[in-house]
Amino acid sequence: MFQSQTRLFKGIECPSIKQKKKCELPHCIFSHPRAAAATAVKRVKETPAKAAPPPKRKVVFSPVMLDHPPAQHQLRLRYLSVIRDKLEEVKCNDPEAKAMELEKQTAERSTAGTYANNIRTLVREILRGEHNEGAEEAREKQAAKSTRLKYREELAKLIIPESKLSKRYIIEIPSGEVEEDNKPVKCDRCGAMFYPTEEAPVECHFHLLRRNYNLEKKKLEDVFPCCGQVLGESNGCELRNTHVFKLSAPSELHKAIPFRTVPDTPASSKWLFGVAIDCEMAYTSKGMELIRVTALDWDSGDVVLDRTVFPSGRVLDLNTRFSGVSDLNEGTTLNSVHYPTLDFESALTALFEYVGPHTIIIGHGLENDLQTLRLVHNLVVDTAMLYPRHATRTHSLKQLAWTYLSRNIQSGEHDSYEDAGAAMDIVKADIRSRLKL
């Protein structure tokens, strides 16, 4: 059937669609329902997949090729398998790779006549654990431990006997009567006598530095190093408006602040075998008091304590030129951590975290430090009494540091860390030299 040119029947539904639900005429003049438009599907652009990386080539378990092998390949392979098996027995992480490495090293240093024997030696070493993972690190730790123990043993041998210590140190808690409080005392700077309770301004003339001792002439120099003035030229190059004093009699020290021994209970896991200590002091209305305490671990050399301390008396002179402390309110900073200034009792509590009854204390002229700490402790290694050996007079810490360490210390303000470290290093240098460590 041909389509109507006038399209008059296009508005009439096809009878075949009504009856048969379909129309088979190719050019039917009647109306037909429009077929649903096909949904356009957006084609996704195909991206070629990245080629997978080639699998890692597995290392063939075989002896490493050498220019001049000490044995035939088959013999080396048999020994290599034995090495691997022994490494597996000692739980090596990668026994095949380790075996190839060890066999290669052995083969490189062997001849045809020594190869088999060297392999047997290697196997014994493996079974002893010498080629385990971390064995080298373990050996280094063991060597360090052995060296540390040697240093400890030698340090213990240097403890000053009490018979000698008693000549300079307070080795027992003091007892006895104390004279009246308000008695005249001698100024520690200018030598004038005065009453500590007096607060009226005075003129205190003195030299900041004492005269040096001339070893050749065996007497004190005539010139003061602080100003270059000759003895007798003036009363001093410095002027202050207060006199100062320090207590020296054990009973007086004990009355001002009681002495004590290191508490032995409860035991602290932080107690150290040896501690190098240095204290800084200031003049106060109660004499010379502690204003800073520093402690270093003998084994590691690390600073374990560095705190400034408020004295109980009114501060007259912080002695900054020698103490290095200019403001007690600043506190200290250790390992980027700021620590506020402590009172005396809190400072001792902090110190006793590291110093136990059996801790050896190292320092220079420690009788002054222990008196300032009001501490009776007889396990002492004092560089002022020990070095140089067979000396007829006491050498300064500055002199000893230069002699034993080639280190110039105390070139400016004193630093308790520097002084404690120098005393400790002098002892270690002596031990190292004698034992050739």
Write the layout of secondary structure elements.
Elements: H1 15-20, H2 73-89, H3 95-108, H4 115-127, H5 135-157, H6 162-165, E1 185-186, E2 193-194, E3 204-206, E4 213-214, E5 219-220, E6 238-240, H7 250-256, E7 274-284, E8 287-297, E9 303-310, E10 315-317, H8 320-323, E11 332-334, E12 337-339, E13 342-343, H9 344-351, E14 360-363, H10 366-373, E15 380-382, H11 383-386, H12 397-405, H13 416-435
Parallel strand pairs: 7-14, 9-13, 14-15
Antiparallel strand pairs: 1-2, 3-6, 4-5, 7-8, 7-10, 8-9, 11-12
Taking all Cα atoms into account, the compactness measure Rg is 44 Å
Structural class: alpha+beta
Main sheet properties: 7 strands, mixed
Let me know the CATH homologous superfamily of the domain at 250-435: Ribonuclease H-like superfamily/Ribonuclease H
CATH topology value of the domain at 250-435:
Nucleotidyltransferase, domain 5
Estimate the helix proportion, in percent: 25-40%
Record field, number of beta strands:
15
CATH class of the domain at 250-435: Alpha Beta
Percent of residues in β-strands: 5-15%
- Average pLDDT metric: 85
**Shape by Cα distribution:** flat
From N to C, what is the helix and strand string? HHHHHHEEEEEEHEEEEHEEEHEHEHHH
Number of helices in the DSSP assignment: 13
Straight-line distance between termini: 119 Å
Can you name the CATH architecture of the domain at 250-435? 2-Layer Sandwich
Low-confidence parts lasting 5 or more residues at pLDDT below 50? 37-42
